[in-house]
Design a protein that fits this description.
The protein is an alpha+beta fold and 240 residues long. It has four helices and 16 strands.
Length: 240
Amino acid sequence: MRQAATLSFGTVAYNAPGGRKKMTRKAAVLMAVVAGVACGATGGATGKASNEVLVIEATAYCDRASIKRVIGAEVPENIVVLAVRLAPKGDKPLLVSRDDFVLRSDKDGQRSQPFAPSQIAGSGVLVISQRGGGGAILSEEQGPIIGGWPGGGRPRRLGGEGTTFGNVGEASPQATLHSSSTDKKSPLLALLEEKVLPEKEASEPLWGLLYFPLEGKHKPKQLELLYNGPAGKLSIRFQQ
């Protein structure tokens, strides 16, 4: 007897044929992400890496037109979007964290970790600039930033600490969030939250998007996705 294929989307399962055929909106969105990873649709470049514990497939979107098609809305400049599929091997669950990923550019040595959706489309305006040899910083405070060079400790803000996003590297983008007075959730934030890679323990394939700050224009072939987590270390290069 032929068994129905099962795809897992976070906490949603869809069986076909002969199974549950109602899909939530989130499941449908993640199905589109899967398609993008599988075939490099909408202008992306694909890459893959694996070891005895994990398989990672990724599609990189660098230009604003393809990013808009993947997200469904305009995003701020200097953001690179990656659609990723993580497939753990074996029966042991794997803890998935977005902080396990780093995106590096051959073009200028920039390195960054993924932003949370609220760091891109929260109640403020995101400004990204490059700090050579420093850390990527997200802050809602005012005042100059000092420190952040390799071996010199994490960056500090004169006049008090805000919310910081630290990432010391060869050259890292600095992000500053200028707060606004409104607490209303933006449509872009809802889209980014809906499509972001979930952070959870997974024993089945998991899909989602990662949002990396990189200043300037970068070609997919210049990018390297680095994974360093519970499954070990993996590196992915992209080809169109």
